[in-house]
């Protein structure tokens, strides 16, 4: 593992605090906004509030018991894995400093241009192109290549054969850009001063990188935010936003600050005043915060809040017990390649390989057998769904997904592709049993605060300004995360979420910031 300096502020957040700008959340939207806004705010005047805790290389779970202890719940509010079950759709998201980047599969993939045809008129693939490139540079993406220390992966060859079989229909194969340090650093500081090891090919990207080789947001955007003067507070969960009574400030945040003492977590309520507020708490966290604030206070938002929810066309399968080991040595990064079937008639999705992380194989060994699991791999489809899900609050204030058609909204042809992959590797198809029961699962929840050119059609405008019901915007209030996406992307969404945040931050600095910080509140 690689020794790093902590990013989170060690000073205790006061019971009542004031900042010029607060960013709620530290994922692909929040980290980008914090990094780009911090240099334009008086030093120490921007605060990042993250409900989860900070993880260092070596802190992530490495066994079944440790993984269970990291499942977030009422007794473990600081757990890494935020898992939700509902009759219509299950989900897995992250809870920690760095947001989803801690446990995502590192893929930096652009959607096709036509995806943006229904988005606000100023959001096009061409308009986002320079921001996509900026994010790729920040994430230091690379592609996996077969070399002496990185052996060929059998699962990649299976994908290559799938694409070749479907090539007459428009399929193609390629290695995908991944935010993993494969070649650049070997224990030395990266471009942001963070020491990083090279990838050890352990396959644990989606349970947290204990080697320190994953280019998650704690290695790039968040250190940049801190260098720009941001203060980063972990274990602080914002639960409500109201207008601030403090002169010169616009919003008052009610939050819960948590501290771990031995085996217990203590809580205290804090109040935070701010002139400018960026909500980037993730699709579910942002929906909950805005809905709770509207239900319990005077703030009002567009009637479209909660509508247009999407699982990004996610579908999973395991090719179990094939004829060959999927990796000659260690499993390699979680995802390294894809068969692009977006041009194939009746498909419209990509299918990617997936290494099984150690804690999953350890848990499944007694049931499925260690040798058989070595001859198994995960296949992930990312495509399009009908994006007709709706988010709402239950009586206990928890976000729930209402989407009776979710199982029928999955990409057509995915089951046939999973079967084709199984034939190529002479393996059996093991589907998610919840999916077989009509409840799919997503790791890419999107929408609920979608962008639109008017309050009648969406919750925020093209740079994330939050609409009032009548069509004007709440001054100094923005949303910057996957919730602003107008439906599924047909690609892994992290690159697009970050690019949208880069674009929004640029425009906020140029057009909004002076008036918001130094004008009348």
Summarize the structure.
The chain is α+β, with helices and mostly antiparallel strands and 521 residues long. The chain has one domain (16-518): FAD/NAD(P)-binding domain. It is built from eleven helices and 21 strands.
Descriptive notes:
This protein is of the alpha+beta class. It has one domain (16-518): FAD/NAD(P)-binding domain, CATH 3.50.50.60. 23% of the residues lie in helices and 22% in strands. The protein contains eleven helices and 21 strands. The strands form five sheets. Strands 1, 2, 8, 9, 10, 11, 20 and 21 form an eight-stranded mixed beta sheet that branches. It has a six-stranded antiparallel beta sheet with strand order 5-13-14-15-12-18. It has a three-stranded mixed beta sheet with strand order 3-4-19, with no helix packed on it. A hairpin with a 5-residue loop joins strand 20 and strand 21. One of its GO terms (biological process) is cholesterol metabolic process.
Descriptive tags:
521 residues; alpha+beta; FAD/NAD(P)-binding domain; eight-stranded mixed sheet; six-stranded antiparallel sheet; 23% helix; 22% strand; oxidoreductase; EC 1.1.3.6; flavin adenine dinucleotide binding; sterol metabolism
The tally of helices reads 11
CATH level-four homologous superfamily name: FAD/NAD(P)-binding domain
Sheet with most strands: 8 strands, mixed
**What overall geometry do the principal axes of the alpha carbons give?**
globular
Top-tier CATH class:
Alpha Beta
GO molecular function, one term: flavin adenine dinucleotide binding
EC number: 1.1.3.6, 5.3.3.1
Domain Glucose-methanol-choline oxidoreductase N-terminal: 94-294
Pfam family, one: GMC_oxred_C
